[in-house]
Amino acid sequence: MTFLRHGWQLLDHWFKNRSFPAADLSQREASSTRLGASAQRGSRCRDSGFTLVEVLVATMLMGVGIVGAASVFTLSSQASSAAEHRTQASHLIVSEMEAIRAIPYERAGLDPNDKGFEPSFRGHESVIWTKDPASNINPVSPYNTRMIDGTEYTIVRRITWADTGTDVYLVKKSYKVVNIEIKWADSSGTHIIQQESGLFEGGGR
User: Fold this and answer.
1) Rounded Cα distance, 123 and 147, in Å
2) 186 and 164 in contact (C-beta within 8 Å)?
3) Domain total in the chain
4) Rounded to the nearest 5 degrees, what angle is found at the Cα of 196, between the Cα atoms of 144 and 199?
5) The pTM is what?
């Protein structure tokens, strides 16, 4: 036991008094310094950076906002386009009505051989007028289409006889009724507007 105790004392004395080369100490100090700096940088990165969960949440919120903004923009664009088309159709229907009003009363009628001719409308007989070979005036066309700014408008023209009076004193074919229908389709659906007016012999309205 005394021998072992004496051996441990010698080893302890040797380690305490052992001198390390200066280069070895410098390398140890440099390594320690690098480790300390790296730890500090890592700490700062952890303090100033974002976690994966935070990035995912931020991305999701941005995505929801972008989709919402795109939907609002699309709806606004569709509403604006629909309003523009309706305005164009309104101008067109007024123009069509005025064009028929400019025709002499006796010639305001439809050719039964034309496309879109209807023998009657709402229970009233259509006014038929066949073109006179000696005349350059054509009857009113019942149907045609017009393309305006990329949108196709279908125009339906109807001219019928109006009946007035009672069942006892019914006057047949007392005056003419003009009905103009404009139909078109866009991103918001299919739309139809109509305008109706009476034509009286002698130019009365």
Assistant:
1) 31
2) no
3) 1
4) 100
5) 0.61
